Amino acid sequence: MISADKSPSDLEGMEERLRSRLGWGLVADIHPTTYELRLGILQAKVDNSRLKVPPKVMEFLAHKITSNVRELEGALNRIVAHADLVGRPVTIETTQELLRDLLRANDRRVTIDEIQRKVAEHFNMRVADMHSERRARAVARPRQVAMFLAKNLTQRSLPEIGRKFGGRDHTTVMHAVKKIEELMASDHGFAEDIELLRRTLAG
């Protein structure tokens, strides 16, 4: 088995006969797993084994453990085994406690770019829409969520945050933060979604 960052036909500095021979084999283009794929893997494992794991915990794991599938499945086994052993339900809080070492290894400094990617992934939208002028609710609300998280999870000033969202004014960021706070206070399900994203990003 040979691995490379490009296909055999694109390899430079190698004799043509070697490139041709490498091309005869099975060439597989392997991409990093997506959030949806990781979540699907966890869901399938839970369904097949009838494990009791809340959807929010699986979403948390799919967001946080991105290194490889084996590590992801190992994390799931670990929290389920602990829950069975001590007779406690699986929650995000217990998951964070049990997987502290693993989550720390997958953590990195939170940036606005990372927040935008995670929020776009969570709401199934394009990252480019974070910077666009589109005002449709399906785009505007996730953008406000990302601004809210940027304000709470980074040391960036309001003008700096606004610039990262398509050059918006700092008052737009202030409005977004206030709006999300109001929605969280009135909608428990929405507040849970935001808390999941916050925990995912902050560790």
Q: Could you explain how this protein is built, in words?
A:
- This protein has 203 residues and is an all-alpha fold.
- The chain has 3 domains: 1-30, no CATH class; 35-106, Helicase, Ruva Protein, domain 3, CATH 1.10.8.60; 112-191, Chromosomal Replication Initiator Protein Dnaa, Chain: A, CATH 1.10.1750.
- It has helices at residues 16-24, 35-49, 55-64, 69-86, 92-98, 100-106, 112-122, 137-153, 158-164, 170-186, 188-202.
- Helix 3 runs parallel beside helix 11 (188-202), helix 9 packs across helix 10 (170-186) and helix 10 crosses helix 11.
- The mean pLDDT is 83.
Give a nutshell description of this structure.
The chain folds into three domains: 1-30, no CATH class; 35-106, Helicase, Ruva Protein, domain 3 (Orthogonal Bundle), CATH 1.10.8.60; 112-191, DnaA protein, C-terminal DNA-binding domain (Chromosomal Replication Initiator Protein Dnaa, Chain: A).
